[in-house]
Amino acid sequence: MTTVTQHSGKPADGRRGDIGTTTGGRQDAAGNAPAESADNENAGAVVDDATATAVERIADAAKAAAKVLARANRATKDAALRAIGTALVEHQDRILAANQRDLADADVNGVTASLKDRLRLTPERIAGLAAALENLASQPDPVGTVVRGQTLPNGLRLRQVHVPLGVVGAIYEARPNVTVDIAGLALKSGNAVILRGGTAAAHSNAALVELIGEALTGQGLPATAVQTIDAYGRAGANALMRARGRVDVLIPRGGRSLIQTVVRNAQVPVIETGEGNVHIYVDASADPETVTPIVLNAKTQRPSVCNTVETLLVHRDFAGLESVLRAAADAGVRLHVDERIAAALPADVPTQAATAEDWATEYMDLDLAVAAVDSMDAAIEHIDRYTTRHTEAILTNDLANAERFIAEVDAAAVLVNASTRFTDGGEFGLGAEVGISTQKMHARGPMGLTELTTTKWIVQGDGQVRA
Predict the structure, then answer these.
(1) N or C terminus: fewer CB in 10 A for the chain?
(2) Predicted local distance difference test score (pLDDT) of residue 33
(3) Cβ-contact 182, 273 below 8 angstroms
(4) Angle between helices 376-386 and 399-408 in degrees, nearest 10
(5) Residue 436's closest CA among 389, 370, 380?
(6) Helix-helix angle 176-188:74-90, to 10 degrees
(7) What are 101-110's pLDDT values in tens digits?
(8) pLDDT at 44 exceeding the cut of 80
């Protein structure tokens, strides 16, 4: 049995504990610095009458805009997407100036490097946002797509078709790129969206929403299709969570603290997304020359995002342990290892002893927990205990082991011999994503255009009545 199965970083019933804020420069599970946790940011504020009325007014305007978008054809929506992309590039100075204000505030507040990475916009990242909007415009329109249909014996003609959700609320943190991603996805799928992007990115998000509104107006669509409630702070977020009947669905995007805050407090239906305590299991049969670049990519390509590997489980008979971990250490990865891994490595490979907390931590930084396992059974047991059901991967040359891992591991995405960084709406060909759903109702995995729709039954008859 693996040496890590007795750790208590997660309750015995299999649910993850709330890690809270860690020390040593790390952030809490939501990726925030101690000065600004997601719980502090989005919960606990009293919703005064003025704030409640203001958010209700915004939601009502969004509901009216959603009706306009529901009637818009693909050409109109695609033109609007391209207009937004053009506006972002042409007015990037406005965006970058606002972003610099947020980064300056981040320095004052002492936020972590990984949070600042998510917060930072550059000309290259803005160009990438514009390219993503162009890609969205090239995607098929899900609205009106027929799921199934038939003509009943009595002559009734049935169709089940995709239709917009209506008004989507999104609560996220320190990621101005998400503002554009969600706005674009909502527009293409015919939804209006209300955004709560958090204090850390307030200036950036305000500039982006303003430019998006100008582009929408220029295309004859209501600017109220994309609105922000950042000006109303925590109270506004809580008012949005309670706007049942005005908001159709709420999507939190961020770490555990933010997501669970929304789940616990919302009266609006919620789609859980995001938290990624991601594992890679290295099977005994895996090729070390393949394992090393995959692990390095999964950990170092962009460590501050939710599809980054956080725990490496290595079979005791894998031949390339030292070469893989030496390469990781050389790349700046801080290795948190169990006793067996420590004993197997030479002294010149820097490591630190793993604690019970490490197995349950979503680092979002250049940290990696590493444990030895005696079998695939032990690896799957560990994953099942600590997984957030986001992304899990196996590296193996044994087809039977790969198929078993696929069948038994419960996650939104399961990868074989590939980096976990591929769990992404853009990489999956969805154009973009509003988040990665880790639940099993309505949508699971990267949520693209289709996942922002529901269905409607259309029944057409010629005077039939039920007997």
Answers:
(1) C
(2) 35
(3) no
(4) 30
(5) 389
(6) 160
(7) 999 999 999 9
(8) no
